Amino acid sequence: MSEFDISDKELKTLLKAEGLDSPSVDFNQLVLDKVKAAETQKAKPVSAPKWLLILLAVLFIAPSLYFVFTDKSALTNPEKLQEYIPNVETGLSSNIILFATLILLIGGIALMMGAFGKWPFKKERVKKS
Amino acid sequence: MDLIIAKVKAGDLSAFNVLIDEYKNMAFTLALKLMKSREDAEEVTQDAFLKAYQKIHQFEGKAKFSTWLYTIVYHTALTRLRKKKLPIDNSNLGQEENLVAYSESDKEWRRLQKQERSSHIQQALSQLSSEDQLAITLFYLNENSLQEICEITTWELSNVKVRLHRARKRLLKALEALLDNEVRELL
User: Fold this and answer.
1) Does B111 touch chain A (CB under 8 A)?
2) pTM of the full predicted structure?
3) Do the interacting molecules here have an ipTM over 0.85?
């Protein structure tokens, strides 16, 4: 009984004759949609602008230095702490002063953002095909 | 092809569309051999193309683009199989020893028209394990070299040779069994 056999060449020809399987008709579009979605959803690395880092550093370091180089007992004694706070008479209520300070702070931040040209939450441009 | 790949690297999606057109059928065929379901194979192929686009800057052109792409397809399929906890089908390993020699199959084979033969080959192929099908598809259908099959599958060269030899043997045995059944039905 001879063993059944076919040549490599015939095997190749027959496999090729049957052809390849094809994915769905809209395969290309589905892939391209996935690519576009991945591109737009790509997480932008969080990078704080320099001015924000400097501002945070100043806000953190300044009071730290203040307390390091002044009498530390002031931290536990509110009356003594009051001595270090300058008493400025403006004739305005404290609410107005706080509000004005807040506006100045926001305005300052906006100015710095504009000056450095780095808006941290700007939209990422989507590449068009 | 180099120009198209350069365009894709620059973010040109229409160039990428050309690449998809060129390779989607073979990529899908490979995924189908491993996944055994058209739905899963389609998802795997889509994900593989997405990965290829995202990592295209890593393609240096040392190997053929197709080899690089099919490597991604193969590994994406394996990852999907692991996630779904589906075993890689190696069910027919070692079965050739149990197969009986069939007498009339050779005559029946010669009687068949080319188209019928081709259809029988496909039927026989579908009876092989995923990895045997993959080896046969890459070597005979896509005409990849042994070295390229090593790159795609990360199998050792000796493993590729042995697997191909055994896969071919199993394919012929499966074909023989199909033909023998046909002869029996005719009698």
Assistant:
1) no
2) 0.63
3) no
